[in-house]
Amino acid sequence: MKLAVVGTGYVGLVTGTCFAETGNQVTCVDIDERKVEKLNNGIIPIYEPGLDVLFHRNVEEGRLKFTTDLAEGIKGAEVIFLALPTPPGEDGSADLKYILKVSSDLGPILNQYVVVVDKSTVPVGTAEKVHAHIADNAKVEFDVVSNPEFLREGVAVEDFMKPDRVVIGTRSERAKGVMNRLYAPLVRQGNPVIFMDERSAEMTKYAANAFLATKITFMNEIANLCERVGANVDDIRRGIGTDSRIGKRFLFAGIGYGGSCFPKDVQALAKTAEDYQYDFKVLKSVMQVNYSQKTKLIPQIVEHFEGNLRGKTIAIWGLAFKPYTDDIREAPALDNIRALLEAGAKVTAYDPEAMDNVRNILGNQITFAHTSYAALDDADALVIMTEWPLFRTPDFDKMNLLLKNKVIFDGRNVYEVDQMRELGYTYYSIGREAVNVSVEQKV
Ligand SMILES: NC(=O)c1ccc[n+]([C@@H]2O[C@H](COP(=O)([O-])OP(=O)(O)OC[C@H]3O[C@@H](n4cnc5c(N)ncnc54)[C@H](O)[C@@H]3O)[C@@H](O)[C@H]2O)c1
Ligand SMILES: O=c1ccn([C@@H]2O[C@H](COP(=O)(O)OP(=O)(O)O[C@H]3O[C@H](CO)[C@@H](O)[C@H](O)[C@H]3O)[C@@H](O)[C@H]2O)c(=O)[nH]1
Prior knowledge:
- The protein has 3 domains: 2-196, NAD(P)-binding Rossmann-like Domain (Rossmann fold); 205-293, N-(1-d-carboxylethyl)-l-norvaline Dehydrogenase, domain 2; 295-441, 3-Layer(aba) Sandwich (Rossmann fold).
- 41% of the residues lie in helices and 13% in strands.
- It is built from 17 helices and 14 strands.
- The protein has helices spanning 10-21, 33-40, 51-60, 70-74, 97-106, 126-135, 156-161, 173-183, 198-229, 233-241, 262-275, 281-294, 297-304, 332-342, 355-362, 396-402, 417-423, and strands spanning 2-6, 25-29, 64-67, 79-82, 114-118, 142-146, 166-169, 193-196, 313-317, 346-350, 367-368, 381-384, 407-410, 426-428.
- The strands form 3 sheets. Strands 3-2-1-4-5-6 form a 6-stranded parallel β-sheet, with helices on both faces. A 6-stranded parallel β-sheet has the order 11-10-9-12-13-14, sandwiched between helices. A two-stranded parallel sheet has the order 7-8.
- Helix 8 (173-183) links the parallel strand 7 and strand 8 (193-196).
- Helix 5 (97-106) runs parallel beside helix 6 and helix 11 runs antiparallel to helix 12 (281-294).
- The mean pLDDT is 96.
- Residues 6-12, 29-32, 35, 83-86, 98, 101-102, 120-121, 149, 151, 153, 260-261 line the site of nicotinamide-adenine-dinucleotide.
């Protein structure tokens, strides 16, 4: 099939590349000329494991192309994906200006029946708006389908190529046929294409993200309580996760959820509820808890250094909002770095992939180290913000030589408490006993 993907960000690039991999002819369109130029020169602007192999193969074999010209990009396409940003507007609702602008632009340049697919995360009712914007100027028949994307950054290719399910919102039999044909190579037995109406599909995406954010937040609250009652949240996770009704995944307590999706989507769903005069109490709490969870270690750090961080150097391991990505959107590390700087500390950071992105924001306010160990040199404490595998089994002897004090604040529970006790570290983590801490400081 011939496809167009409008918007070549995370989702657009993965969508375009993966559909090219299943034999389709794909043209990706983006207004960002520099991005398109890079892509045409074989440079992928994001770090996503496994994407490069597929990208280069499909570019070389002529199935994947890039352009800034919308009319050229959609020429002959049977399906046009909209993978455009839906950032939070001032009131927290998803801003539809990118989607609706492209929809208006599409109307006059369509010249045959086409299925326009909302891949972006969009509030209930958006498919109708997109339809109306296209219809204003369209002279041909078309359908608008909601096909939300559930991929996770870091494992995006795997998620896209082997989806748990594909949700397609449409009441058009013609569009259903086109979408079934397109997804046939990606859905395995038991991993269904689920058809529903457009509004339900739009709502499904928000319900999934809000549910997962709530699950994480619930565990973070259990962790906070564990610290007070003297229980271990990792044991609780194992104890409840083995109940198949609860499930093992997304139960890891830490310094809150971040990324480009959960924070904005939870907020947007809360705004939808407000617009429909529904008081969605759970979501409000989830947002509040996550806000404070992100910087939950800061008071402990300040207290550990007896209320004064001036002249102290804090080493940070991990800047990305999670491992296997260079994405720092809503990354807890940024909030923590800002809080540490405000408290007068110096910060030296290391991340395997995300340092350039942070440098673009913070410039020389912090020091960037070339290796994880270099970040520790003469530091007064180590703070772990992202659970990159590299940080899990470090050379503790080497760390002892570099760190001024054997103190670790672990926002992702990367180490075992007993291990840290044996190694003689002062160790603070999430939802577990703090070890080797003087009685007055114990939390
Ligand atoms: N990032 C994820 O992991 C993820 C996963 C699932 C769903 N989503 C949703 O998918 C959507 C896109 O997310 P993203 O992370 O890929 O966004 P992004 O910001 O990384 O990329 C969006 C791209 O659209 C381009 N663009 C803007 N206006 C344009 C126009 N008029 N014509 C052509 N291109 C234009 C931008 O230049 C940019 O390259 C959002 O709604 C997001 O919530 C994201
Ligand atoms: O047990 C867990 C699991 C995740 N997180 C945090 O939750 C955030 C989001 O993680 P993850 O869901 O893996 O990353 P995303 O790439 O943001 O993916 C989410 O957001 C995407 C965009 O909507 C959806 O497509 C995906 O299905 C959904 O998982 C990150 O900050 C993680 O550190 C935890 O704190 N504990």
